[in-house]
Amino acid sequence: MTQDTLFSKIIKKEIPAEIVFQDDRATAFRDINPKAPCHILIVPNKIIPTVNDVTEEDEALLGHLFIVARNLAQQEGIAEDGYRLIINCGRHGNQEVFHLHMHLVGGRSLGRMIQRD
Ligand code: 5GP
Description:
binds guanosine-5'-monophosphate; five-stranded antiparallel β-sheet; HIT family, subunit A; alpha+beta; 117 residues
């Protein structure tokens, strides 16, 4: 049995979150620590820890995340000005939650993509 993650508990509504979309394949909710006026996490309901764990079987599911992102960007009113989709992977990617997720970030100009810290 796959171990629950923070996000699978949100998906099952065991932990509260502001869910903005849910279907049988994916769930989207607002990030608890938003980096921009719009910051939504789009998560497959299936637990895939990182991009390294993606298999060919997941191809349609991952494509679905983009459809959800497109629809939410429209719904949030940020589609025209643009936005950024981010998937962090592993230590160098600064991934915090090991349940693959796409960040939908927008509502302000986001500057250059990668910053050295
Ligand atoms: P990562 O760094 O793994 O790509 O992103 C994890 C994201 O999850 C972070 O942006 C963080 O703010 C968000 N996050 C962590 N814990 C919670 C939580 O309990 N609820 C919500 N809504 N977001 C969370």
